[in-house]
Write a structure and sequence with these properties.
59% of the residues lie in helices and 4% in strands. The chain is built from ten helices and two strands, in the order ααββαααααααα.
């Protein structure tokens, strides 16, 4: 049975988490709030095509997304209370390991400096989920991730449609497949409150830029690599739609 909007919202955010999640779970994953000052300005002419501020911002934000979703996926693999939640964790880890490998490969070619830490807001995403236990961990993690994933399609589409850089175009294609896969497995958990998600996606709170921007790496620091655990055989490119599960 589908729960009422009020009851479902209560289960989703639970008591004192109302304001916390309302402030946290909104789209900063892949640069929805673009940090570029003039997105269309060409900042470099590479052998793969011109690189704009928006292109550079996209590469950085894809990298930053992995820096919080990869550890949250590992948490879901260990602490998820259902097979579907553990599966979602596996897809998060695999998908962002592979996106990260692409980011690390193309960044030197494009002259883009990658962060080694997620933004403060993204780090708080992980802390919020990590601070909950049992079923509430599942609900909190799914809620945060479904909102962020649900808002990035327009960003990916805009980059894919407008970029003249073939490496950025390749990354956008891969990101689109990965995000669609992640949305699919998150919805498969049966813990997505669509009313709450849709509200948060369309009514994001405003945060200062410093909360949304990944800190620059320390000079000379090696680039942190997000790795895929051995034996994790996950297909993140071809999600199969299933019947919509009811909220548990």
């Amino acid at each position: 049975m589908r729960m009422s909007r009020r009851a479902a919202g209560t289960v989703f955010i639970g008591g004192g988490l109302v304001l916390t999640l309302a402030a946290l779970a909104y789209p900063a994953m892949l640069g929805v709030q673009n940090t570029a000052t003039t997105p269309s300005r060409v900042i470099a002419n590479t052998r793969y095509g011109p690189l704009t501020e928006a292109d550079r911002d996209f590469v950085v934000k894809v990298r930053a997304a992995g820096l919080w979703e990869h550890p949250l996926g590992l948490l879901a693999m260990r602490r998820g209370t259902t097979p579907e939640m553990k599966e979602a964790g596996e897809h998060l880890v695999a998908g962002h390991s592979r996106l990260d490998a692409t980011c690390r490969k193309i960044a030197p070619e494009l002259g883009v400096t990658l962060p080694n830490q997620a933004s403060p807001q993204q780090q708080q995403f992980v802390a919020t989920a990590d601070g909950s236990t049992g079923k509430q961990f599942d609900i909190t993690a799914v809620g945060i991730m479904r909102v962020t994933h649900g808002q990035i399609f327009p960003v990916i589409a805009k980059i894919r449609a407008g970029t003249q850089n073939t490496l950025v175009r390749q990354l956008a294609d891969q990101a689109n497949d990965t995000v669609l896969d992640h949305i699919t497995v998150l919805e498969k958990t049966g813990m997505v409150n669509f009313d709450q998600v849709n509200f948060q996606q369309t009514n994001p709170p405003k945060l200062p830029d410093e909360q949304l921007t990944p800190p620059p790496p320390q000079p000379g620091a090696p680039v942190v690599a997000l790795t895929e655990p051995p034996g994790l055989n996950v297909d993140t490119t071809s999600p199969t739609p299933t019947a919509r599960p009811t909220i548990r």
